[in-house]
C-alpha cells in the first residue's frame, strides 16, 4: 500500500498542477481568483502558492489595485514565471547528450551538448548530462528549481509512456542500461519524466517544426545506425513493443552482411554512416569520417557517387514502401550526412517515386531534416507537451511549431 507520506505528496503535486494549469490558461490572477477556478480552500491555496513562489515556479507580477472597486488592501496577482525553466528535453545520442530547456511559453531558454565515447556506460552518460545542465543553467542564469516535467530520448526500442509520472529511484536505476535514466532524473530534479526512443522524438520535432507542420510523416535518420520514426495524425506511433519506425532493420539485401540485430542485409548494413564509409574504402577511397567523405564527394569520384546512390536508393525503397502503407504528407531524411552529401536526398526522392502509384496520387514531399543535433531534445519537449498530465490544455502541434 502507498504510504501516508506518498499519498500526501501525490495530493500536493495534484494541487500544484491545478494551480499552474489555471495560471497557464488564465494569465495573472489573485489568490482569490485562483481559489475559485481550482476549487481549493484559501488555506490550502495559500500553502500551495507559497511553495510555488519559493521554488520560483510563479512570481508576483502586480496587484489588483487598478481593478478593485471595494475597500481593503490590494491583492497580489500571481503568474507563471516565464524565465524559470519549466520544462526540459534531453537526447542521449550514441556519442553525445543534448539538452534543451523551455519556459512556460515554450521559448527556448538554454540549449547545448556534451560529447562522450560511444561505449560510455549509462551512469557516466547521465553524470555528463547533469554536468552539462549545471553549466548551461549557470551560464544562462536559468533557475531549474521549478521544473514541471522532463522528456528524455534514448537509443534503441522503447515503448514510450502514455503519461509522465514520478518513479521511485530504486525501480530501475543501477542496471547499467537506459532503463534507469528516468529514475535518475526524477531523483535529481524531483519532476516527472517520460522516456522514448530519441529518433522517434526527432520525428515528432520535424513534424511540428518550421512554417509548414504536418500530421503524417515518415522520418529516417542516417547515423551510426539507421533509425526511424512515424508520426500519424500528429501523434508518435510506438507500436506494441516500441518497435514502430525501426526502418533500419528492414531487409534490403537478403544475402547481405549480418546486421548487429542478427539479421542479414538490413538497411543499416547499407545506409548507416559506418557502412557507407566502409563501402567507399572497399572501392579504394580512403575515408574515415564524414569530413573525409565531404571532401571526397566535392570532387568527381565514381566510387563515392555510386556508394551514396546505392545507399540512398535502399533508403528510398524502404521509405517508399512505408509511404504506400501510411500515405504521409512528408518524408524527412535526417543525419549530418545529408548535409555532407545532398545527393542522398535527391536519390531518395527518385526511389520513393518509383515505389508509389504511377498517377492520381499526390506524392509525399521528401526533404532533408530542418533540425540538427537538437532534434531529439526538441522532440522530447514536444512529447512532454503532448503526453504529460501536468500539461493538459497546452497548445497542440501547430502552436508548438510557431
Annotation field: number of helices: 14
Q: In angstroms, what separates the terminal alpha carbons?
A: 45 Å
Query: Quick one: biggest sheet?
Result: 5 strands, mixed
- The low-confidence parts are 162-176, 388-402
Order of helices and strands: HEHHEEEEEHEHEHEEEHHHHEHHEHH
Strand arrangement in the largest pleated sheet: 6-5-4-7-8
Say how many strands there are. 13
**Based on the structure given, which CATH architecture of the largest domain is correct?**
2-Layer Sandwich
- β-strand percent reads 15-25%
Kindly state the mean pLDDT as a whole number?
83
**Which structural class is indicated by helix and strand composition?**
alpha/beta
Number of domains: 3
The radius of gyration computed from the alpha-carbon positions, rounded to a whole number of angstroms, is 24 Å
What's the CATH topology label of the largest domain?
Answer: Nucleotidyltransferase, domain 5
- Relative helix content: 40-55%
Descriptors for this entry?
Arc Repressor Mutant, subunit A; Nucleotidyltransferase, domain 5; 3 domains; 14 helices; disordered C terminus
Q: Would you spell out the secondary-structure blueprint of this structure?
A:
Blueprint (H helix, E strand, L loop, with lengths): L3 H23 L2 E2 H8 L3 H14 L2 E6 L12 E5 L6 E6 L3 E7 L5 E8 L6 H19 L8 E6 L26 H9 L3 E5 H11 L8 E6 L3 E7 L2 E2 L31 H4 L1 H10 L7 H8 L4 H25 L3 E5 L2 H4 L2 H13 L9 E4 L6 H13 L9 H5 L1
Parallel strand pairs: 4-7, 7-8, 9-12, 12-13
Antiparallel strand pairs: 1-3, 2-3, 4-5, 5-6, 9-10, 10-11
Helix pairs in contact: 1-2, 1-3, 2-3, 6-13, 10-12
